[in-house]
Amino acid sequence: MYPKQTNRGKPVFLFVLLALAALVLLIMATISVNKIRDGQPGFFTNLWASSSTTQNADPILDGNPMRIDAPPYVKTILFEGTDSYDGSYRTDVLLLAAFNLRTNKINLISFPRDLWVQIPNYGPQRINVAHEIGGDQMVSDTFAFNFGFRPDHTIRVDFEGFQKIIQALGNITVNVGKPFNEAYDEAGTEWLTLEPGLHELGDGQALFYVRARKNSSDFERNRRAQEVIKAMLEQFFRPTIIRERWPRIFKTVFEEVKTDMKISDFLLYALPLVKYTDKEMVTSFFITPNEAQGFVTDGGAQVLAPNLPAIHDILNRVFWVE
C-alpha cells in the first residue's frame, strides 16, 4: 500500500509566508518612521515620496516675523478641551505637545484661554473663541498669525470623553505641584484637598482638578492641566498598561475625541516612546504673567495681553530651535 499523503507541507508554507510578510511590513515601517524623523510626511506613503519636499505657499506664515523654523523631525499635537460638542463651544483648554521624533522627548506648553489675540479676518478676541468663529481652520490660522506655527494635528475632547479616557487608563498618578483646596459645590459640603506630591486621581477628581477656577487663575489652571496630561502620558507608556489596556485606550480615544489623526499617526507618536518610562520624557513650559499682562478691554472684558516676542522665545525652546 502507498503511504497516506498528509498536508503538513501546507501549514509550514503558510507560516513561512506570513513570517516573511510580517518581516517586510516591519522593514517598511522602520524605513517609513526613519524618513518621518527626517521630516518627510506620511507613514507608509512616504516610502515612495521624494526626499526633497516642496512646501506650499502659506499666506499667513510666509513673511511672518514670528514664524517658528522648527526642525522637520518635530511634530505637534494641539489638545483642545471643551465642555460640550453641542452647538457652538469654546476651547477653554489649549495645550500644545511637541514631539521630537529623534530624541523621543515631549515638550508641553499651555495657552491661557483669555489671551487677547488677533483672529484673522475677524479682529481682536480671546483665543478660546477661534474655533467657535471658524472651526479647525480658524484655530490653525490664529496660531499661525500670532505665534508663527500651525499645529500638525488637533485632538479635541469634551469633559465626558476626558473622563472616559482616564477610566480606560485605570486612574492616573498626578504629581501635584502646589497645595490645592477647592469645594466641589457652591455649598462647600465636599472638598478636594491635595498637598504637593503624588496623588492617585480618578476620572472625576482629575477633571475637577483641571477645571476648578474659584480660587485659581488661568496660569494655575494651565499648570494643573499639564500635570494631568503628564500623568496620563506616563500612565499610557507603563509596560503593564501597554500589555493590558492599549486596545481599550485606543478604542476609547477614537470613540470619544474628534481628531484629524489616523491610527498610523498615533502609532508613529507612540511607538518610539514606549521605551521611555522615566520622568524626563516630558518637559513643561508655561506662559506666565511675565509673558501675558492682564488688562480690561473697551468692552469691559478682563483678558491677557500677550507679549508675542517673549512667547516666541519660549516657543523656540519648545520646538527645539537652535
Beta-sheet strand percentage?
A: 15-25%
The major beta sheet can be summarized as: 6 strands, mixed
Secondary-structure content class? alpha+beta
> Helix and strand string, N-terminal first?
HEEEEEHEHEEEEHHHHEHEEEH
Q: What's the name of the CATH homologous superfamily?
A: LCP protein
Can you tell me the CATH topology? Aminopeptidase
Individual helix count? 9
Mean pLDDT across all residues, rounded? 82
Low-confidence stretches: 43-54
Q: What is the total tally of β strands?
A: 14
Counted up, domains total 1
| CA distance, first residue to last residue | 80 Å
CATH class category label: Alpha Beta
**CATH level-two architecture:** 3-Layer(aba) Sandwich
Radius of gyration computed on alpha carbons: 23 Å
Widest sheet: strand ordering: 11-6-1-2-3-12
Q: What's the helical proportion of residues?
A: 25-40%
Describe the structure.
This protein has 322 residues and is of the alpha+beta class. The chain has a single domain, classed as 3-Layer(aba) Sandwich (Aminopeptidase). Helices cover 38% and strands 22% of the residues. The strands form 5 sheets. It has a 6-stranded mixed β-sheet with strand order 11-6-1-2-3-12, sandwiched between helices. A hairpin with a 7-residue loop joins strand 8 (180-183) and strand 9. It is globular, with a radius of gyration of 23 Å. Mean pLDDT is 82; it is low at 43-54.
